[in-house]
UniProtKB/TrEMBL annotation, chain A:
Organism this protein belongs to: Roseomonas alba
Membrane topology of this protein: Multi-pass membrane protein
Keyword Transmembrane found: yes
Name assigned to this protein: Probable membrane transporter protein
Record-linked Pfam families: TauE
Transmembrane segments: 12-38, 44-71, 83-104, 110-130, 170-191, 203-227, 239-260, 272-291
Cell location: Cell membrane; Membrane
UniProtKB/TrEMBL annotation, chain B:
Domain of life: Bacteria
Keywords annotated in UniProt: Membrane, Signal, Transmembrane, Transmembrane helix
Signal peptide: 1-21
Name the UniProt record assigns to this protein: TIGR02186 family protein
Pfam family, one: Alph_Pro_TM
InterPro entries in the cross-refs: CHP02186-rel_TM
TM regions (residue ranges): 230-251
Organism (species): Roseomonas alba
Amino acid sequence: MQVYLPIAEMSVDALLLLGIGFGVGWLSGLFGVGGGFLLTPLLILIGIPAPVAVASGANQTIGASVSGLIAQWRRGNVDARMGAVLLVGGFIGSGAGVQLFALLRRAGQVDLAVAIFYVVILGTVGMLMVRESVRSILRRRRTGVAAAKAHEHTWLHGLPFKMRFRKSRLYISVVPPLLVGFGIGILSAVMGVGGGFMLVPAMIYLLGMPTSVVIGTSLFQVVFVAANVTFLQAVQVGSVDIVLTLLLLAGGVVGAQFGASMGTKLRGEETRALLGMLVLSVALGLLYDLVRAPDNLFSIGALP
Amino acid sequence: MIRAVARALTLLVLLAGAARAQPAPASTPQLTADISTDRVEITTGFTGASVMVFGATERLIGAESGEDVVVVAWGPPQPTVVRRKVNVLGFWLNGPSTVFRQVPGFYAIAATRPVWQILPEETRRTARLGLDSLPLTASGSQAPAFRAALLELKQQDGRWQEYAHPVTIAGGRLFSARVSFPDTVQTGDYRIEVLLVRDERILARQALFLRVDRVGTAASIASVARVDPVVYGIVCIVLAALAGWFGSIVFRRN
């Protein structure tokens, strides 16, 4: 069944979009991430123009994360204060990111920039995840227990503008969370992702937040930053396709349920290893696209 | 009273002038044509559309009489960028580009015989018949490769067509041709011209007009997004959030 996407100005098989939504939703339910990093490249692969794929990917992230946020909020797992600080950085970052995106679009380098961002970020994160999870799997094999990470004091804790985050049991400078939020905001705007897969490790390892509040707080940040990106992309680039978003979400919410019930059967380290390999393979696939000789050296596009 | 007479006189003079400028039409027109619809509607289920151009000629069409029919369709102009990929340190990225400002977003030509066989180059150029006769002037790199790439890629995605559909003749004098629009068709005013050709000359021509419009949901979404992007952005956020929230209620276990 073909459906016409009014902003992308093309018609796409609705079942294909539902299927992609389902698949990405399933993986995001399984791994507890938004899945934007898979969604945007898949959309570009089926021929959706990169600006529409990125903007609609951000829009879809809101829907995919909001139910998780509600659940975590009810359980009191959201550090609203930390979330707000992250959000300030996130808003500035996503604003800058959308400007960068518009600039790249005028220069005709959006596809390249999106691909490079994906390769570098996903490649790095994927490798770190695989390495970390393989280590902890090996460690558990040897000792029988997963080693708990000690709370370390680094130079980050010596910065000024300290603030007390009661839920996270932290008394740290607001500078690191602001920077983390800013960085994720830029990625969110350029890659069309929520950034949960980067935010979670950053919160644990850089900010030293307890794992119990990490997921909820990252969802808090992801939902609002994605909303900001959606808004800015709609106003500045005009590339949010709501029909595309809703079709993806329809498949996604169903897929997430299946994924989540399956995810409970896996161990944490195994899940992280699988997710890391998935992230890494997306990065490698995109890298291959950049280096292989193109079928046609020329491409055409409408004048931005 | 005097004014009314003056107006009538002016009208008479104008009519006389018009009559002199155009030779008096023959009792039957040499060519009559029409299209199956003057409106193509892009709905939510739009996958492309085709319209039928049909008509009749006074004399027989074909090799014996030497008369040919040409049908040509234009869409609104669409400035297009052609980019060439270059290899930098092993990576393929967009390098030099050329902007073609005055190119039709859609162009299709169909004829009983290819136009280069029946019309001299000059006529084809002025009437813009055939893809090779389109005035593709570029700013930026002038390399002919860009022009060739534009022609190739536009034909690949179906927005430019050369003899993609035949002009079929029935009974020697009735002709029909199909003009098909891909799903990526632009909205706007389209012009279809039907030409009657004999002895390397255009004997008669008739212009038909067609409008491509979004209708229904697709139209309202696109117009809100363009006219009021702030409202559209907020609606997108709210709808996505509601969809996610609704999903979590429907599938809540326990």
